[in-house]
Amino acid sequence: MVDKEFWSGKRVFLTGHTGFKGSWLSIWLSYLGASVNGYALLPPTSPSLFNVAKVDNLVKTQIGDIRDQELLYKSMVNFKPDILIHMAAQPLVRYSYNNPIETYDVNVIGTAKVLQIARSCKNLKAIINITTDKCYENIGLDKSYKETDPMGGYDPYSSSKGCAELVASAYRNSFFDELGIGIASVRAGNVIGGGDWADDRLIPDILRSFQKNKPVIIRNPKSTRPWQHVLEPLSGYLVLAQKLYNNKEYSDGWNFGPKESDVMPVDWILNKMKKEWPDSSWSLDKDSSPHEAGFLKLDISKAEYKLGWKPIWSLSDTLKKIILWHNAWKNNEDMQAICLAEIEEYMKEMNNEKC
């Protein structure tokens, strides 16, 4: 389980903390009593979870690009972290087709710069390197990908994340093992939850369109993905960091995904969401779309067996929580409090699962 006692007083350097996942993790770490130094670009959307939940009030923030090695060095080394969580990335598949050089620069060279600077952090014990479920070489088979499967990627984004995995592995073997620093790469994807306003993501697109009573444009309604609430993989990252901090045997690759029953096609989610907006509709995108895998699923048995971690919330419950969160935001409620209540609820259910 996520151990509040472990995190209390820990110094955590978190890249990408202004994004959707990064903001949720910042709130959670603050709740656990960690001292967090966030390093990221300005929030990528307006509105953003970072702003509406007032995350800046909870953590120290340095606005900067991970490719700016001098600024990143000053921020990270001066903070003297115990744990580094590297989340900053160019995270969108379609964007990567239009901006492949930027995608490789941020996701590969940026990761190398983060890890290079980490070598100079004297108190550092554990690094969690966040990549994606799309880092695997997807050859179109109906199978669950294991951590031992080869890295790959058809599109620039997926490929860049496969490259980032290789960078992490090289730094583990060449430098961090000798320094006594554990580094684990974590793979999760299709993360959903309240506070995501990114373009070209299913749930934000649905919410924007349905509220305006316009049809949501869908590229591939039969594409099947491992959908999961944002707190699910984040809980895995936290549990793994706890293990890795004291035991370098956990320095490896890890999958975090949903239950088998929650790996669903896009149109299943559309039909669920339509029940909340009966007059809503969707239509197929008539423009040609870049290649995307039709089926993607992760094998999470390693995390279940070796970490004692498992997903808690079903996809149906997750969609209900997203709608409740979104309605609370529309009603101008205290969204930091709403997020904290959701985190507390999740931790309570997580602890009950362990009892």
- Describe the oligomeric state of these chains in a short phrase: single chain
Largest sheet entry: 7 strands, parallel
The radius of gyration computed from the alpha-carbon positions, rounded to a whole number of angstroms, is 19 Å
Structural class: alpha/beta
Features of the shown structure:
Rossmann fold; globular; alpha/beta; seven-stranded parallel sheet; 355 residues; 13 helices; two-stranded parallel ribbon
Report on this structure:
The structure is a single chain. This protein is an alpha/beta fold. About 45% of the residues lie in helices and about 15% in strands. The chain has helices at about 5, 20-30, 50, 70-80, 95-100, 100-120, 155-180, 200-210, 230-245, 265-275, 300-305, 315-330, 335-355; strands at about 10-15, 35-40, 60-65, 85, 125-130, 180-185, 190, 215-220, 225, 230, 255, 265, 280-285. The longest helix has 24 residues, at about 155-180. It starts with a helix and ends with a helix.
Question: Would you kindly provide a brief summary of this structure?
Answer:
With 355 residues, the chain is an alpha/beta fold.
Which helices and strands appear, and what pairs or packs with what?
Blueprint: H1 4-7, E1 11-15, H2 20-31, E2 35-40, H3 49-52, E3 60-63, H4 69-79, E4 83-86, H5 93-98, H6 100-118, E5 126-130, H7 156-179, E6 182-187, E7 191-192, H8 202-211, E8 216-218, E9 224-226, E10 228-229, H9 231-246, E11 253-255, E12 263-265, H10 266-274, E13 282-284, H11 301-306, H12 315-330, H13 335-354
Helix pairs in contact: 2-13, 4-6, 6-7
